[in-house]
Structures are given as C-alpha cells and as structure tokens.
Amino acid sequence: MPIALLALAIGAFGIGTTEFVVTGLLPEFEAEYGVSTPVAGFTASGYALGVVVGAPLMAILGGRTARKRLLMLMMVLFTVGNALSAVAPEFWVLLAGRVVSSLAHGAFFGVGSVVAAQLVGPTRRASAIALMFTGLTVANVVGVPAGTLLGQQVDWRLTFAVVAGIGVLALAGIAALVPAGAGDAPAAGRATGGGVRRELAAFREPQVLLAMAMTVLGFGGVFAAITYIAPMMTDAAGYAESSVTWLLALFGVGLVVGNLVGGRYADRALMPMLYVSLTALAVALALFTLTAGDKVGAAVTLPLIGAFGFATVPPLQKRILDNAADAPTLASAVNIGAFNLGNALAAWLGGLVLSAGGGPTTPNLVGAAMAAGALVLAVLGATLERRRRLGRPAAPEPTRATART
Could you tell me if 121 and 247 lie in one domain? Predict the structure, then answer.
C-alpha cells in the first residue's frame, strides 16, 4: 500500500480523537466555566452538527480545488479549531473551536476516501479506504483514552494542544507524501461537468441514496447501544463506573478489526460483505439486550458489535464512490455526514425508548431494528441493480460495412 495512506491515517487519528475525547472531559469543562452538564455536552453535539453541515459545505466550496490541496486546507482548519479550543478563555470560544474543527471532518474523510481509492488499483480500493479509516478506529483504542487521562490528570487544554500538534503532523505528511494530482478528476471531466451541478447530479443515482440510507441505519444502530453504554454497564451488568473506559477500549479493538476485515473482503465481494456484516450486527445488538446483563457476556459482545458495525464502513464508502464515479467528492463527503446523522438519530430513538420506561438494555433493540433496516435496503439495492443490468439492451451487432472498415 502507498505510504501516502499513512498521512491520511494520521489525520484520521487526530479527527477521531478530538471527536470523542470530550465525552470524558465534560466534568473539566463544567468546573472550568461553571456550566451545567447539558451545556457542556454541546461540545459533543455541536461537533456532530458541524460535521453534518460542514461535509457538503466544504466539499462544494472546495469543488474546484485540487484534492491534495483541499486535504491540506482541511487539516489547517482542523488544527486552528483545536488550537482555539486549547486557549479558550470562555465557554463559547471553546464551543466555537469545536465547530471550526468539525467543519473539516466530513470533507477530510470524503475527499480522503477518493484520494485513497485512486492511489491503488481497482481491486484494492476498499482496502485503501479501510487503511485511512484505521486512524479513526485506533483513535478509539489509544487516542481517546490517552487524551481523557491527560485531560483529567494534567490539563484538558493540553489534550487539545496535542491534538492540534497531530493536525500539524498530518498536514506535513500530506504535503510530503500525497502525490500532486492524486484523486483529481481528468481535466476533460472537470471542464464538462459543470462544477457543483456535476457533483449534485450524483444524488440522482438511486444507489447513492440507498447507500447513504444504509450508512444512517447501519452504523447508527451501533450508537443506539454505545450512547447509553455507561448506564447499561453499571445498572444492568453491575460494572463499576471506572470499568467503562476499558469496556470502550474493547469496543475500539472491535472497530479496528472490523474496519480491516471489511476493507479486505469488500474488494472481493462487496455486497456479500454487507449482507454478512449487517446481519451479524443486527443479531449481536439483539443478543446484547440479554448479554448486557452479564459481565462476561457484555465484555464479549461489545467488541463484536464494534467489529460488525465498522465492517460496513469501507464497503459502503466504496459503494458510494463506485456509483458516483463521475463526481464522487460531494457524495463521499455527505456520506460521512450520514454517519453522524445516524449517530444522532440512534441516540434520540434510544432515549425515547428509555423515557418510555424501557429497561437500560432496550436501546439495543432500537439498534438491532436499525441494522435490520439497513440489511433490507442492501437487498433492495442489489435487486434494483440486478434488474437494471438485466434490462440493459445488448450491444448491437456490427454491420458488414462496419466490419469491413
């Protein structure tokens, strides 16, 4: 695999760390600024909203920019946002820094997926995308726990300063290692595509929309469980609050494994990989309703949920690129926003179930239903694709005059 993928993975590691590390630093924000827990939580929800909005916005604004340069600009934006958070004198400045850094999130992964896929041959594109996303999954195992510990034991501002430093390192790596012109559309395609109109045309393709809906439901199902993992593990499984950190680390290990396996097998058989991973995810989430009440069962099921959940990411991202081949940048970036939209939807639905009087493990059933819905959409997409292929007229036979020429 090209070494340029390492630079993309470093950027993904920094983004993954800053996205999730705030969940462990909310008490520090409350103490520093004198805000309530719900207000401190805006640092997480504001970031998610910024990803959803920033993904298409940055992709459109950077539509005529070379993709290597756009990746570098996203890393500059990411670094500035985290540096602003590190020195924030008021809570609103911290929140502004979070939003600024989040604007780079969707476009970086969206454009990075296009670049990663075009750095390798057609038979290795999902694996290349998975290697970039490895940075994000490793962040959940290493970056988030380390950043949380640093913020709790030393200073939360230092956590954001270190993440800003990772942004600088990724920026330097992209500048040095990613080839000029990597992932850029041919000049003829750019000239005839109509810029934004060409990118928006990808959304007329039903397979692109179906893949995005699968993203919302599939990985969103994972967050129906993970959002409420702390009360689930303490109330149902009987773990101490201090154990939640290593349980999340187990979940993160599952993310790493699922990402690599999903990327490898999506290159061989994309749709079968989706069928298997979505089916297994729905079953694992449904079983977690029962196993979450047992310490050993919970510790075994959590990494499986992470593995089956993230095994869907490389094939879904590759499916977007395959079906929006003439204008992949915006569609790829919007699909990253779809992950966050799914996370927010799952957390909301899980909260509704709990508010209605459900037990602490009932959000898992919401997740299982969402994953099952994504599986139905995958079957629908494959069926439509097969019908379109069968209905396509065969190429005309050459005439004798053509044959003579």
Answer: no
